[in-house]
Protein: Alpha-galactosidase
Organism: Flavobacterium flevense
Amino acid sequence: MNDISVNYSIGIGVAIFRAVAVNVNFNKRVMGLYNKSLILVFAIGLFSLNSVYSQEKSKVNKEQFKSWAQTPPMGWNSYDAYHGAVTEKQFLESVDILEKKLLPYGYDVATIDFCWFNPGPKGWSPDKWTTFPLKQLKDADGNFSPLMTMDQYGRLLPAVNRFPSAKNNNGFKSIGDYVHSKKMKFGIHIMRGIARQAVAQNTPIKNSKYFAKDIAKVQDTCKWNNNMYGLDPFKPGAQEYYNSLFQLYALWGVDFVKVDDISAPTYHAKEIELIRKAIDKCGRPMVLSLSCGETMVSYANHLERNANMYRISIDFWDKWKSVAHMFDLAYAWQPMINQGTWPDLDMIPIGNLCIGDYPLQEESSDKTEHFSRLNKEEQKTLMTLWCFAKSPLIWGGDPLTSKPEDFDMISNKNLINIDQYSVNNHQIANFVYEGMQREDRIWTAESRDGKERYIAFFNLGEKSRDLSFYFHWEYWDGNYKFIDLWTNEELGDFSNVFTAKNIPAHGVKAYKMIKK
């Protein structure tokens, strides 16, 4: 029902009662009935109008979250450098570096990745920092080791030995305040569901009459981390539990939440909806990032209705084979590039990675500390694809030990401008016969005002090659000045066709096109 139909209903009601009044004796009793009825009709009409307004307001609120990420989010995440063991000191020192070196380019989110509630194994100390295994052990008596830091409502809290400012139930409030003082946004990673430890203790759910065992789905567990049980989204108390989580995060000043084990290998649609409702109800805007991948394209519409960004890849690392695979994923998801909801190609593994070596029992043997194994051409290819595909730009290298050239690689203003502000981003589909096996790709984009166009020529093969673009493929007929996006070199004017020459193996050449 809209405003017009409400007014129409009121008008019809008034007319009927007027007609009744005209055809009866106008004694006091009839007039009294008429007046009471007229008041009733107006009351019903006003109730209907208010109902319409509420429905419209609710509809707006459902879409409001998209305004919290109008451009692809940019920032840094601790996982690629510190696994699940980052400390407060390491994080705050990283924030200081980010403020100076990357915030001017738009990298404004700093995120503590997973297992911040894990104090580490017995004897672990931040003073002798190492990464550590993150799985909980359980003895014959049912005791967990280590015990995760948790409140009386089954909500996980920062481990105080790693985050000293979290003492006295302060949580991440002090860290959030510090990040905000740098004019940056504060993010955290969480695991889907409720802690197994909470279920064992059957902790109460805040603001409800239910308990952890009422909502836990014990057969629904994460394939790679055993800290949590999933929730049964149809059980009373499940929504209240997620509400209590995000109310807590709002008190901490959280701006960005990455929820893991939720979009793949199993897509947990109903838990995603619970989280969406909890964020919308908590009173603080929080960008919602869903992980991990590869998320199936068949869920794209649901993702757009609920999340600001969503992983379309499995954990991405610094291997050329993984970079090449991203072209297939970016091509498949390009129709879903949309304002406020972004397909996420994952973190950028450039710089110093896997500090102190990752626990080998949890990770493959190549997760020893190292600088990115991608060569410079492959790194340029990565950055160019991420920006042309408008992926969120979340850097994973260690801010404290990465080299100046690593910061330079992720700070190309021309490409960041394309990532943040371009439109009509897509791969040119002129490769139908060889499909995804083709070893060259072309991506294009345009400025919002239509005055600039952008084109990237990718060579996925093992030998250098030339690659041509015919302007009529995109109805870009005319004469254009070409400027190299990586070097800012002006190449001159071209019409009808342009050939990028000697594109190195695994490399890219990318250009701004200005119409003459």
Q: What stands out?
A: The radius of gyration is 28 Å.
